[in-house]
Amino acid sequence: MKKYWKFTAIIAVIVLSIGTFYVNSAISADQNPEFVIKKESGDTKELEPLVLEGSYQGASSGNYVSRDLKITRQGTEYRNPSFLNRLIGSPMPVIESLQEQYRGFMRGKSPSENLFFENDRFLAYANVDYEIGFNSRESKDYTFEIDILNKKEDSTDSFTMKVPDANKMDHVFVDDVQIINGELNIITENMVRDNNSDRLYGEKHIYTIDMANQKFIKHEPIIKEPKGQDNTHFDITFIEAEGSTKMHEKLLFLTTEREVIKDRESTRIGDTSREAISYNLKTKEKRRLSEDLNLEENEISAFDGSAIYLTKVNGQKVMVTPFHLEKKQLGDSYLFQLSDKPMNEVPPLIKIKDGKLYAASNRMNSNTTASVIVADLKTGDSLFKGELRIKNSEDEIEDYDLYIHDIFVK
Amino acid sequence: MKNYLKLVNFEFNRVVKLFTILLGITLVVQMAGVIVQSREYLGRANEKMNEDLMSKAQFLTDYGQISFAHIVRSVWFLGPIALCAAGVAFYIFLVWYRDWVGKNTFIYRLLMLPTTRLNIFFAKISNILIMTLGLVAFQLILLPFEALVLKWMVPDDFRNDMGVKETITSIPELTIIIPNSFVEFVLYYGAGLLAVAILFTAILMERSFKWKGIIAGVLYSAMAILVLISPVLLQELVLNGFFYPMELFVIEIVMGIIVLAVSIWMSGFLLKKKVTV
């Protein structure tokens, strides 16, 4: 054995040193504070389906850290950036459950919620594919890639269709996919080149496809950027409905027109006017909603397919008003007291699910508190009201920021 | 097994000098780096505070505290690591070629040993791994001592203490040799072992067929790399993302094991049948 001492020693050193390092780093606790939702009134059970996703930024022993986290009723879970987690990625919950249920169909499909549609008969997917040309001005040969899973027959229909007038287009993005009355509707954002002025104009376009014969029934622009207005900046946003994989008869768009004032020395933005437009997929009709919504004062916070939820921040209070698209009228407003400490004028994050409204402030630090509210939309009653807090008061630190980026309701 | 261990020990004793020299250089240069850099920092602090009459608070806001991260990012620290890496890379070739050159060709005696010749291959590759991990382990042991020296050198107010784990995670250069998780550690060094196995096979091809062997070795290495990346190429170019990331990962590991097995088999074959003294 004496002969082997050097060899034995080096093996022992390797195992001990590297082993201790990884064992230590595995058991050493996260030094970042744990956030909890502290009840002020109501029933904590209402929090069960709620997930707040955000990031924590702070200084730990002089070192700047930024960590992604999830806050639920149970507490805080810092996202573990382990190798395998990073490898698998974290698709949206809707996509994750679709991948579990239809593993074969979901293969090779881009994991974005807006590219999918699901009802009890079909699971449909549409995306735009293109060949990359040698220079960006070349036409890119845009094609729709469409896959439709018939759930009852368990059969998949896959086909591709050339995007009409693709040679004029610079970009095509799919905003939404919907099957209505057995017809597949693909709503896209197109950037169309205007040959006369050599400029790109944005438009929202709808393509209606006969699924059985794999033919276009009709395609038309829904909203187009007006031409010949060089001193304005025009922007069309598609407002994704809650659970955009589910069926919605109505789509919602928001256009923003900003006046661009060019001085000799600078360029600045002048007056801004906004307009909301709804589009009915059944009748293919659109309607302007601006007067009803009063967008000068209100922000559109959520859209659940039948009602638009408008918010208006006033000091520490937030007023939420639903607008019912079918009845074309505003519903009763609810007033929520968000926090006792001063907060920024950014409206809270709002999610609507199963007749309940979930709202959370989007920022918290040692000067501002963040509220979490669950309310019944029919009665306007508050079901839960609470605040985000750091669990252990000895973990309280001066300099940190908690940002909530998104809220999910399971 | 016993023969294999004997051979590993034997091979280790042959490299122990080079290994100790590398450890020594690392120790001396890194320690010197800690001392030189903290003195430099303190010197600057003295100059600013005594000559330019800057207040201590003002100095700290302008120049910041010194932390171990500053020291790690210097040539004093990363230089020895690079030297050790180069040393190991050099030894991958030397471990074979030293047996052929010299007064009495040592490989002759090695090949005549009453044991399977594949054991020579295993002993040499184990040695490369032991040497590499030994250097990493030594660096891990050295880190807290270096931090201690920094503590002695610099007064509390000017210093920002960091733990070993913190030091490593905050410096991307160090996460290459010491990854954040054990899974990554196994994957990184597993991939390294695979690369060494492919290189060994190429070296044995050269030893067996001389000039023609060099071409064969290069071709073999290129083939091995192609086989290894073929799942990713297929996924991107032909299958349009057919596999889920986890499946692709498992396929890659299987591919790695296959290439490793083929390299070992090929090396065994060359050692038994083709190698010339």
TrEMBL record, chain A:
Superkingdom, natural source: Bacteria
Name of this protein: Uncharacterized protein
Organism of derivation: Salinibacillus aidingensis
UniProtKB/TrEMBL annotation, chain B:
Transmembrane segments: 15-36, 75-97, 118-143, 186-205, 214-234, 246-271
Keywords: Membrane, Transmembrane, Transmembrane helix
Designated name of the protein: ABC-2 type transport system permease protein
Organism phylogeny: Bacteria, Bacillati, Bacillota, Bacilli, Bacillales
Coiled-coil parts of chain: none
Organism: Salinibacillus aidingensis
